[in-house]
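[User] Once you have settled down, look closely at the record that follows, and write a paragraph about the fold.
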Amino acid sequence: MREIEHYTLSNGIRVVHNRITTTKIVHCGIMLNIGSRDENPVNQGIAHFWEHMAFKGTKKRNAYHILNRLDSLGGELNAFTDKEKILFYASLRDVYFEKAVDLLTDITFDSVFPENQI
C-alpha cells in the first residue's frame, strides 16, 4: 500500500506527496482552490480564462517556451478547470522533476496577460 504524505510549506502551500518507486515517471501539479463555483454572472468563465492565459507567457518565458519546454524532454504539460479548482500538471521522467516544478510555479505565480491575447 502506498503512503501519501501531506505537509504545508512555510509559505502556506499545501503539498501532497506519493512516492512510487516502481516507475521513473513523475506526475506533479499545482492546484488552485478556485473554480466556476466562485464566479458570478458578471465574471462568468473567468477561472477557465485565467487557466488558458497562464500558458500565454510569464515574466521569463513566452508562450512557445511554455508549451514546448516539457515536450522537448518527452513530457506533458496541461491544465483543467472545474467547479472547485484549477489544476496545472505535468508528467515526465523523474530526472526532470525540478524543471517541471520550475515551469509549473512560473505559470501559476508569474503569468503575464499579454494585452493582445485578451
Observations:
- The CA atoms of residues 31 and 87 lie 4 Å apart.
- The domain at 24-117 is CATH 3.30.830.10 (Cytochrome Bc1 Complex; Chain A, domain 1).
